Amino acid sequence: MRQKELRIALVCYGGVSLAVYMHGVTKEIWNLARASRDFLDNAEPGNGVRQVYREFLQRIEQESELRLRILPDILTGASAGGINAVFLAQAVHSGQSLEPVTELWLEMADVDRLIDPDARPWSRVSKWWAMPFVWWLLKRPGNAVSESVAPETRSEVRRKVSHLIRGRWFEPPFSGIGFSRMLHDALVAMAQSPTESPLLPPNHPLDLFVTATDFRGYVELLRLNSPPVVEESEHRMPIAFRARTPAASGQSLAAIPELVLSARSTASFPGAFPPLKVEEIDRLADEHALEWSGRDEFLGKIMPVHVRRETADDVALIDGSVLVNAPFAGAIAGLRGRPAQREVDRRFIYIDPRPDRLGAIGKSREKDVGFFSAIFGSLSTIPREQPIRDNLEVLEQQSREAERLRVIVAALRPEVERTVEKLFGMTLFLDRPTPKRLKAWRNKAQQAAAEQAGYAFHSYAQAKLTGILERLAGLVHASAPGLSLPTADPIVGQLRIALSQRGLTDLANPSGGASAEAIDFFRAHDIGFRIRRMRLLARRLAREWESDPEIDDSALEEARETVYEILAMYFEREGLTPLGDEFAGLSHAVFEDAHGVLDHLSQSRLLPEVDDRAEEMLSSALEKMPKNLRRRMLLAYLGFPFYDVATLPLLRNEGLTEFDPVKVDRISPEDARAIREGGTSATLRGTEFYNFGAFFSRAYRENDYLWGRLHGAERLIDIVCSTLDAPLADHVCNSYKRAAFHAILDEEAESGRCRQSLLDGLRAEIGERTK
């Protein structure tokens, strides 16, 4: 049975109170991933919409002979979208429930709850002298409430706006520590809810990326031709987490204070909330006796310059969407270093509740730009609506390069396999592949590839050396913030000097192939080569050989398990973890003793020993394989050096390891019209009152949350259908959409969270539109 992974890189835009809609969408991503996990694990079926999704995946297996797993493994967001990304990442990693988060949005995301106690008017007659101004602002002809708020909610909105106006002036009305407490309580409620197994396979990387804005910023140095150095202020502060998925449930993605800091800072809307300072999170940790032993390490990671300059306590963080409202760059960076266990369909899905904003621009073109419109537009609206074209062009370029690489490898294969067969003769397939023989064959193939490459070997070896030195220098740079280096380039230069002193002056041997010094260096440090080699095997197992009826499915699965166990061993040697605590001290002394750094890297990672263990595992697996699969595995494993010589100099982004084109999908009210036409304006209420509408009305939050779930279900079914080579018939997809819609309404009716009249109205529309 063919298998495929539909991997989701999710981008959640900022949108103020439209975060409630985005929560509804992310809840359906969560439900779909849960159904997918249960389906692949043959677990007990769930209920509600989760059961509908499982039946949908079973139908795909029956009709398309494809077992599909949905993996939301890269999650990014800005502002209120960042909050949703944090909660979804915690649920995916830990197996915890998102249900408590729904209560947060519906019950707590109200101005009466968010307002700082010190900002409340102390009586009905507070600021009595301001009442005429309040009346004029809220009830004059053409006022903002009358123009942008539905009639049935205007009195509620006017009452709450009046409270805000008659509260404190010239300070943010909402409580910063109160907001942090709400986020903390939601995370605690998630931890106390019933847990399931994580939604990603064990050891699969999960990336979370949210944006924040450093209000005061810090000075960075730029190197130019003239003058040689200039200063520039930097205000972007990305907050990133990467974790390997645990096998057991209930393990938090990160310390609770770190998740609260991330969510609180990215959604610190200017003027509404006070900027976040670290002391607020320290206060929260003290109130709840939270364990935060990694505090200094975390702050050093997200604000290294401030930590070095001892100004971290003075940092003021405001809303991430001020500078980056659509954090595609963080999601693109998350593509690096991701193993591909099966065929992968990588999707970037972005949630945009307001794609109709251009319509509003068009309607106002006849009017002159007013004084306040120009100020607010330049300071807030325009920066938050920057185009994503540049990000999509980057993805398109990477997809073209991935496709080009596949074409090159496919064209090389016949010649490479003939070369390997000629190099080893029939003994390759007759001899028992012991670890000793595999090692000898591997060394022989690598030397032959180097010798036969001729002049091309020089560029290949230089590309290898440069890539290795840049990765090693990156480890040193990350471990030595005290060096105050803007980049790792000076460290690369120092490592080159050390290698030259060790005799590595020429990478090529005059008689052909690699020099002895180059072989020793690559053997000690070239982890990238090893990972690329095993990924080639994984790709062949997942894509080319899976459809061969001569190869048994169980044999393929056993081979895959071995390949990924070996990959896991190499992955464990990446990063700073295996280098130990003493590496930081050695890194700070790299300009005095680069030899000590190189020796420590070699002795800590012990790659030749990992090679021996890997070949023991591979030879054992090869011995059990049917002959046709064993032959293909050996041809790929021993042929890899020939592929690598030809392709590595072409790879501008060696870290992009899924080697599959990336497709982009959008989820928005404009794209989901199965129930109601009209898009955003016809469905969402949080758009009212300058996108703050849902914070003023529980009814609005219920409406937007429900539409988020319904739109999410519709678009996710569309996206799943689009991954099939032969899509299901329209009436089949529509039947599952209809079933999902009704299941969602049944769940909400049972929970009692939403008004029955709203549920009944939507159910009637569904019945009318989806007959």
UniProtKB/TrEMBL annotation:
<dbReference type="InterPro" id="IPR024282">
    <property type="entry name" value="DUF3376"/>
</dbReference>
<dbReference type="InterPro" id="IPR002641">
    <property type="entry name" value="PNPLA_dom"/>
</dbReference>
<protein>
    <submittedName>
        <fullName>Patatin-like protein</fullName>
    </submittedName>
</protein>
<dbReference type="Pfam" id="PF11856">
    <property type="entry name" value="DUF3376"/>
</dbReference>
<dbReference type="GO" id="GO:0016787">
    <property type="term" value="F:hydrolase activity"/>
</dbReference>
<keyword id="KW-0443">Lipid metabolism</keyword>
<dbReference type="InterPro" id="IPR016035">
    <property type="entry name" value="Acyl_Trfase/lysoPLipase"/>
</dbReference>
<dbReference type="InterPro" id="IPR019894">
    <property type="entry name" value="Patatin-related_protein"/>
</dbReference>
<feature type="active site" description="Proton acceptor">
    <location>
        <position position="319"/>
    </location>
</feature>
<dbReference type="GO" id="GO:0016042">
    <property type="term" value="P:lipid catabolic process"/>
</dbReference>
<feature type="domain" description="PNPLA">
    <location>
        <begin position="10"/>
        <end position="332"/>
    </location>
</feature>
<feature type="active site" description="Nucleophile">
    <location>
        <position position="79"/>
    </location>
</feature>
<keyword id="KW-0442">Lipid degradation</keyword>
<dbReference type="Pfam" id="PF01734">
    <property type="entry name" value="Patatin"/>
</dbReference>
<feature type="short sequence motif" description="GXSXG">
    <location>
        <begin position="77"/>
        <end position="81"/>
    </location>
</feature>
<keyword id="KW-0378">Hydrolase</keyword>
